[in-house]
């Protein structure tokens, strides 16, 4: 994994009332701070994706509560907070020939993007005017 | 590995056939003379014991189904007065009255010899510490295996089924080396152990003796991997004796059948005609030495195939393939015959996974509806929705190509499909409940 990527946790949830609330309670009880999330859903189930301040603690807490959890590397970018900020970054990514699987926003002006090959995307973005957000930053700015 | 009863287990097959014929003729005469049900059935067909001149003549005899044993509840099929019976067992009897089986002192001795044989085949010896996780009480499983293992001289822990935490405690504290239970209970044990942080593969446990329900190759692989043991299968049913009817040796190329005490037939379940050696059919068993409860041509509803080729272990007893399905497991959905094992095969073929699954059959209007629920374990789960949707589509397509039916594939959370300590339920047929 690249040290410039950040960790994202995904949780499988059936469409039953209270399941998202249970996930968030488990994380709250474990002292984990959620920095951003997105839900992708079908009629029967959903995928809850989370970026948190302490991925290890979050993963352990969710797993021991019986959830199916997976961890992936994703790219976290700090957008310029101006009109066209997101568009500019996405254009850069696209021009690097990287296809985005999904994108969602976090706290502040952060967005997460995921692509098929994270390492390659990070490499292609390295000389572009894009500010990448590190895992430490996500943890430190919590609170 | 030593053979428990070399005289019978390595007997020349021609001599064995002669022994079988002698014993068959004796059993038929015994049943005809002492059990009104058999006399009636044979008289109706115009068959007398003296008509049995070869092993093939067994086909002159009537088949016996579970209903005959149920209709004569409790002791109507006994061939000896109840005072000659020293032990009685029964089936669980979840529907109506149970099936009651009895044993004379000699029957118990035979049974003990045969379960000792099965345990030896699995590699159990005097130095072993064997934990029995079969139900004791009226069920034949616990006591049957118990006495055979004692006869070998191994140390027995009669733990019974249930109380899984105590099982794990004993396994850790008593130095258990062999485990006797159903395959689904073994997996349940693995699951509870993993949840409680007990590392079974690091314990002295080295071999499992599994029986009491049908199981698949992959279930066995999973047991071996998660418990870190060698898994062996054995076979038996209360109606003809209990465990000890057949058991796997270290070569693990089928279960050696106790042909000196039973006559085995494999028949096409729809025509009742024998199938060729190696072909699959329903196993039909005639007891050859039972005194209290002789059984003629018992329909087991278990599907298997027999191989009489010599085994590398030196035993000459024929081998039956592990029972994976029963004729009465078959579901008829939209007029198509479906076995739960086919769905399991389809799941495995998709990407080599063996998830917990549940087949739900229901009827909407005149149409049967087939749903397959799959627990989403980590190896299936993706953070990308398109992958998940593609996975369910691949499973549905595979099921369609294997069984010829469209199924609705539903993904559910891990642990949401009910597990039981005993036999796992893979099918819910709501059409029967409505």
Key phrases:
heterodimer, A: 143 residues, alpha+beta, VC0802-like, 2 domains, 7-stranded antiparallel beta sheet, 7 strands, 32% helix, B: 434 residues, alpha/beta, Rossmann fold, GMP Synthetase, Chain A, domain 3, 9-stranded mixed beta sheet, 4-stranded mixed beta sheet
Write the layout of secondary structure elements.
The complex is a heterodimer of chains A (143) and B (434).
Chain A (H helix, E strand, L loop, with lengths): L5 E9 L4 H11 L4 E8 L3 E8 L2 H10 L4 E10 L6 H11 L4 E6 L4 E6 L2 H8 L5 E2 L2 H6 L3
Chain B lengths: L5 H4 L3 H22 L1 H9 L21 H6 L15 E4 L9 E4 L1 H17 L7 E4 L7 H13 L2 E3 L6 H10 L4 E4 L1 H13 L11 E4 L6 H11 L2 E8 L4 E7 L6 E3 L4 E6 L13 E7 L10 E7 L1 E2 L11 E2 L10 E3 L2 E3 L1 H12 L5 E8 L2 E9 L9 H19 L4 E5 L14 E3 H4 L1
Parallel strand pairs in B: 3-4, 3-5, 5-6, 6-7, 17-20, 18-19
Antiparallel strand pairs in B: 1-2, 7-8, 8-9, 9-14, 10-11, 11-12, 13-14, 15-16, 17-18
Helix pairs in contact in B: 2-3, 5-6, 7-8, 8-9, 10-11
TL;DR?
Helix content of chain A is 32%, strand content 34%. Chain A has 143 residues and is of the alpha+beta class.
Tally of helical segments of chain A: 5
Quickly give the CATH architecture of the largest domain in chain B. Answer: 3-Layer(aba) Sandwich
The portion of residues forming beta strands of chain B comes to: 15-25%
Class from secondary-structure proportions of chain B: alpha/beta
Morphology of chain A: globular
The whole-angstrom Rg of chain A is 15 Å
Helicity range of chain B:
25-40%
Structural class of chain A: alpha+beta
Order of the strands making up the biggest sheet of chain B: 4-3-5-6-7-8-9-14-13
Query: Residue share in helices of chain A?
Result: 25-40%
- Enter the CATH topology name of the largest domain in chain A: VC0802-like
Secondary-structure element series of chain A: EHEEHEHEEHEH
Classify the fold: give the CATH topology of the largest domain in chain B: Rossmann fold
State the end-to-end distance of chain A: 27 Å
Beta-strand residue percentage of chain A = 25-35%
* Mean pLDDT rating of chain A: 89
Query: What kind of sheet is the major sheet of chain B?
Result: 9 strands, mixed
